[in-house]
Amino acid sequence: MRDSALKAGLVGLAVGAGVCLALYGLASRRRRRRKGADPGERDRSALLRAASGIPLVSSSGRREQGMDFPNSPHVLETDDVQNLIYLLESTKDAAIQEQILITLSNSAAFSINQDTIRNLGGLPVVGKMLSVPVANVKEKALNALNNLSMNIQNQEVIKVYIAKVCEETCSAPLNSELQLAGLRLLTNMSVTNNYHYMMTSSIPGFINLLSAGNERTQVQVLKVLVNLSANPAMTEHLLKAQASFLLSLFDSCIKEDVLLRLLVFVTNLTKHMKKDKNTVNYEYNEDSVFSVLWGDSTVCAQKLASLFHHHDAEVRLQVAALIRQQC
User: What residue intervals traverse the membrane (predicted)?
Assistant: First the structure.
């Protein structure tokens, strides 16, 4: 324990040393800004050098540069965060952008720093990184926004990037870390109903990822779809989506993490359909979610009957819940 505490302390000092080199440059920049002058190239270079020396930990918890941050909400002080935001805004170096985004992401894992980053105007600066044509930078920006989105006030700022995040997520290389980072952020942003309407046009893209993606992608996209399906206002949009493959996932060979979420998704839609008869009367395409699940109820019933004998107890319980909703 003593060695661990000593190591944590040394790392904390290392972080401080990395950012303190930037303090003088930032102070000078602020003084000149008050006088109406732009920051000099010398200050900018000093800040960039400081950022490149900051020890980092990736959002997945992997060590970067062989060092860890101490487990404390005070990993970065307010001035340090201000420095990093300025650096991120001023540099065009993708490697430095990536480093800064990882640092801000780690810092944003703590609620106190989520507020600090927002109050210092950091959210729009991070959001702009989604337009950088470098996949790693976009991924790290999404990871940072994901941590920052755990704060309700931050979500009100982040919502302006939802369309961009949906676009990047659906067009990213299939099963890539970039795609998964986008889906994680959209999962957080869809926990409440507040921003569901901003994701409506991307539902076909999400359904496509469910069809083509691997297990990790399927689980993550189903988290988004389950959140959307919990909102009655989204029912018709989801039922219209083309998903001819959907019943093929109702199979005992499908991983439980995927199957459980798919069953919850269908259960939510069934519950809303029972309450709103208008959704049933709409004319659906033959490959739509509605037609696939309820166009030939016999096929769906057979699939559910086989899953009722699934080896996993949670799957059996969810199948029972779905059957009750259909009665």
Answer: 6-27
In terms of pTM, does the model score above 0.85?
A: no
**Total number of domains in the chain:** 2
∠ Cα 314 227 327 (to 5°): 55
Is residue 199 included in any domain, yes or no? no
Domain boundary among 122, 155, 189: 189
Residue-averaged pLDDT of the chain: 82
Whether 249 has a pLDDT exceeding 80, the answer reads: yes
In a shared domain, residues 159 and 278: no
